[in-house]
Amino acid sequence: MAVLVLFLSSAAWGLTWLPIKALGNMGLDGMHLVFIAFLSGALLLSPWLYRQRRYWRQKITMMLLITFAGGFANASFQSAIYHGDVLRVMILFYLLPVWSVIGGRVFLGEKMDAVRLLAVALSLSGAFIILDIADSAWAGVSWIDLLAIGSGIGLAATNILFQFTQDIPVMSKVSAMFIGCTVLIGLSLMVFTSAAGFPNPNAVLLAVAYGALWLTLITVGTQWGVTQMEAGRSAIIIVMELVVAVVSTALIMSGELQYFEVIGGLMVLSAALLEGSRNEVKGGISALLRPIHDR
Questions:
Q1: Domain of 251?
Q2: In the chain, how many domains are there?
Q3: Helix H segments across 94-169?
């Protein structure tokens, strides 16, 4: 069940660039889009957050950490997809195995063996090739690249925090993530003025639907799935997001990568496959049903 839910959710994440780009073409500014979408999801999930408060009110520090880490991950990812090249952003985001392995070792005590060290080496080497650091001396690294990498770090941190707080229902934690993203983007809108005009009302309604339905469902599915398995194995299943993004972009937009980006991307993909190919899923159907009982 955990594998299936995470697999489907990851595939849906790989298609999020479609509504993001479509809403951008309708004139909806990137920061406004993210704010509206995550505010909609936060409002939808707020009843669960309130009803399940007995589980998290004694662990407010962990909830605040989830709020910040999850909010940062989502805000960075959505902004990078909106402004950047879908394939490049996705590949850099998939340095996730590096951060998952390191975090799993430091915070969860997961084993660090030769296979995992090789996965980390492949991921980092692939990133250096993608960013063309040898020739550009970091000059070619854009703020969008940094957002893409930062979103992966934020997601790895969020997944680890979810492992630490398995006694807190997933719906409450996802609600905290959405609130965090809304607050971060809201503060950004206050600091950085936008030249965008009043959003198209139709685009606003579609952004509400995107946040309340699409983003909410796949985030709940993803975050429930990662709590049922080791951080290393979840990284391999989540790689479906990258595969779907690459294939859909190639089919719909005829997206192209430079030869060094292809090589680096294959290295990052290989690292994810290598890292997640061996751990056992933990938990079971009872873990899925528990948040339902709390509704």
A1: 2-293
A2: 1
A3: 96-108, 114-130, 133-136, 143-164
